Amino acid sequence: MKDTRIRLAVAGLGFGWHIVNELRGPRGSADIELAGICDPDPERSAGCAAESGARVYRDLDEILADESVEAVGLYTPPHRRAELIGAILRAGKAVMTTKPFEDDPEAAAEVLELARSRKLVLHLNSPGPEPAPDQRLIMEWRREFDLGEPVSAFWETHACYHEKADGSWMDDPARCPAAPLFRLGIYGINDLVELCGEPVDCRIMQSRIATGRPTADNAMLGISFANGALGCVAASFRVDDGKPYANRLLINYERGTVWRALSHDPEGVCRLTLMGKGGGKERILREAEIDTAEHSGAYQWGVFRRAIRERRSISAEYARRIVSSIELVNSFTQQCLRPENAL
Description:
CATH class of the largest domain: Alpha Beta
Number of strands: 13
CATH architecture of the largest domain: 2-Layer Sandwich
Number of domains: 2
Order of helices and strands: EHHEHHEHEHEHEHEEEEEEEHH
Shape: globular
Number of helices: 10
Helix content: 25-40%
CATH superfamily of the largest domain: Dihydrodipicolinate Reductase, domain 2
Distance between the termini: 58 Å
């Protein structure tokens, strides 16, 4: 049988090391062949190569010169990432990257239009190119039970990071504003944009409780949407309850409420519950479980492979969702940088 997997090289091993491991596992390896890796730190490259058996490229230019590489997994810091994505696209290769996509909405819009004009695939994990199974189920319940418009939504996650300042972009309030939101809460922002529609305004709160970094370790974002819905995204690096990244979503519609609880335990599942009125009284109308490997924010490697093989570029709607998220982040970045909001 012909191997239809995509040959992908990973650039940037700070986070990309996790991607290398995912591509070697059952989810990633079915759709992606790891072509190689590169990182500015030669020791990191050597360590990853020794563990994964991957080829080491000197730099991104060497990857782009390799005609056998069809796609690049780009895992560099978000600041000016659009420039690197543009270079990859101009070399005729597809791109998979991560949230946050970029910190400049104009640069993001330009490189997304470049992908569309060249009919090349440009995906990231959040927002994903297609609604994830948990998002699709919520949308299906909304239609099936005529839940109406979203009214309010709350998304929360936490972990416990005992970080120290290291001079990286994560120490810079301008490049890592309201850090827990910028690094983790992006998933919640993208969930709420997917489920509640176009955001029109936001308000930020942040605090620095015990982190060794000069950036925040506790933050909350209020969002208003064009349809009148209100949302809140909360993220913290200061909660140590043994359940890190246990994302929770509560969304109230006009005629029902959906609760989603996501656990990242080894045996964890994504549980969804729909509460509403049936027979004149409130009761549970539906319950469901979804594999945590498929929840919103997970890499859609199968979708990526099929899009490349079928020569399907990104839609205008997907590009707009990506830019909407960055515009929201850009708005709370400006709020964080005001003197009265400084930590």
